[in-house]
Write a structure and sequence with these properties.
The structure is a single chain. This protein is an alpha/beta fold. The protein has 10 helices and 13 strands. It has helices at residues 54-62, 70-76, 81-98, 102-105, 125-134, 150-160, 176-188, 241-244, 247-259, 273-282, and strands at residues 2-18, 21-35, 38-44, 118-120, 140-144, 165-169, 191-195, 215-217, 236-239, 263-266, 288-289, 307-308, 311-312. The strands form 3 sheets. Strands 4-5-6-7-8-9-10-11 form an 8-stranded parallel beta sheet. Helix 1 (54-62) crosses helix 3 (81-98). The relative contact order is 0.15.
C-alpha cells in the first residue's frame, strides 16, 4: 500500500469573510492510497482553530507506514483532518476494488440530493443585504455572525431574502448574555438554527437556558467521545468529516447522536467537491445540510458535484466512492 499526500489550492469565487478573518483561496490536502493497481482518494482541510496546519497534517499522514485498514486507522490517528482524508481515500479504494459504491459497502440506502445551505460572506449590512437579494432564490441561507454589529446584518439579510430560511453561525463569538438578549430577535426574524453561540470551553452557560431557537454544537462536537459533554446544552450536532476524522466515525456519530435525541446537521470546511462527496452520504435525512463549499469556489475538481434546485447531489463514480 502506498499513501501520497499533495497540496492543492482552489481559488474562491470572491473574498470570503467570517469573524475569524478573510480568505481568497481554499488550501486543501489531497490523499491518494494505492494498492493492487487501484487508487482511492480523499481530501481534508486543516483548520487552525483545532491546532492544525498544512504541515502538521501532512506529517501525520506521511507517518503512516505499511498496509492500513480503516479499523486500524482509528487507533493510528486522532479525530481530525489527517484521519479524514485517509479514511475517505480508503473507502474510495475499497469501493473501486469491489466494483461497488461506498454506500453499498456501508449498508446504506442509495443516496439522493439534499437541499443545502448557502453561506453569505460577512460584510457590511448593505453588502449582506445585496448578497441576500442575489441569492434570495435559495431556500436556505446561512450567515456568519459573532460581531458587535450582528443585528443590523441579520435584519439586512432578512430584508434581502424575505422568504428564505435563515440559519446563523456565531463562531463562538457571543457571551451567554448576548445570546439571551438576541434570542427574541432571532425568533422574530425567523431564524431556524443557531450554531455554536458560545465558546466551546464556556458553553456550560447554556445549561438551563431557554433555547427558543434550536442551538447546534459545532466546535463543541467532534466525534462520538464528545457527545456526553453536550447534554442539556444543545439540540443539534453539526457533523463535519474534518472533525470526526472521516466518514467511518461520521456515520457512527450520526447514529449515536440521533439515538440520544439530537437532530443532525452536516457541515463542511471550505473545500472542493472531493471533500463534500463523502459527506453527502452522512447528510441523508439530516435536519440541516451545509455542504456549500464548492459553491464558494471559482474552480473545482473534475467531475464536480452537481448542485441544482434539488440541492447537492451524491457524487458520480468518477469523482469518488
Amino acid at each position: 500500500m502506498r499513501i501520497d499526500v499533495t497540496r492543492d489550492v482552489f481559488r474562491l469565487a470572491q473574498v470570503f469573510t467570517i469573524s475569524r478573518g478573510s480568505r481568497v483561496q481554499a488550501e486543501v490536502l489531497t490523499v491518494r492510497v494505492s494498492e493492487g493497481g487501484v487508487t482511492g482518494w480523499g481530501e481534508c482541510v486543516p483548520y487552525a482553530r483545532y491546532g492544525e496546519t498544512l504541515d502538521s497534517v501532512t506529517a501525520q499522514i506521511e507517518g503512516l507506514v505499511g498496509t492500513i485498514t480503516r479499523a486500524a486507522l482509528y487507533d493510528l490517528l486522532p479525530a481530525g483532518a489527517a484521519r479524514n482524508a485517509v479514511d475517505c481515500a480508503l473507502w474510495d479504494l475499497e469501493a473501486k476494488a469491489a466494483g461497488k459504491r461506498v454506500w453499498e459497502l456501508a449498508g446504506l440506502a442509495a443516496p439522493g440530493p439534499e437541499i443545502t445551505a448557502y453561506t453569505l460572506s460577512l460584510a457590511s449590512p448593505a453588502e449582506m443585504q445585496a448578497q441576500a437579494a442575489k441569492n434570495a432564490h435559495r431556500p436556505l441561507l446561512k450567515i456568519k455572525l459573532g460581531t458587535p454589529d450582528d443585528m443590523p446584518r441579520l435584519e439586512a439579510v432578512r430584508a434581502g431574502a424575505p422568504h428564505s430560511t435563515i440559519i446563523v453561525d456565531a463562531n463562538e463569538g457571543w457571551s451567554a448574555q448576548v445570546y439571551a438578549d438576541l434570542a427574541p430577535h432571532l425568533v422574530r426574524l425567523g431564524v431556524a438554527l443557531v450554531e455554536q453561540p458560545l465558546p466551546a470551553g464556556e458553553d456550560d452557560a447554556l445549561l438551563g437556558m431557554a433555547r427558543p431557537v434550536p442551538v447546534c454544537a459545532d466546535e463543541s462536537a467532534h466525534d462520538c467521545s464528545t457527545l456526553s459533554k453536550l447534554k442539556g446544552k444543545y439540540d443539534v450536532v453539526n457533523i463535519k468529516l474534518d472533525k470526526t476524522g472521516g466518514l467511518t466515525e461520521a456515520l457512527r456519530l450520526r447514529d449515536a447522536a440521533r439515538a440520544q435525541g439530537y437532530d443532525v446537521m452536516v457541515g463542511c470546511m471550505v473545500g472542493s467537491s472531493l471533500a463534500m462527496a463523502p459527506a453527502t452520504l452522512v447528510a441523508q435525512g439530516a435536519r440541516v445540510v451545509d455542504l456549500d463549499g464548492p459553491l464558494l469556489l471559482g474552480e473545482d475538481r473534475r467531475d464536480a458535484l452537481k448542485y441544482d434546485e434539488a440541492g447537492v447531489h451524491p457524487p458520480s463514480v468518477e469523482l469518488w466512492g
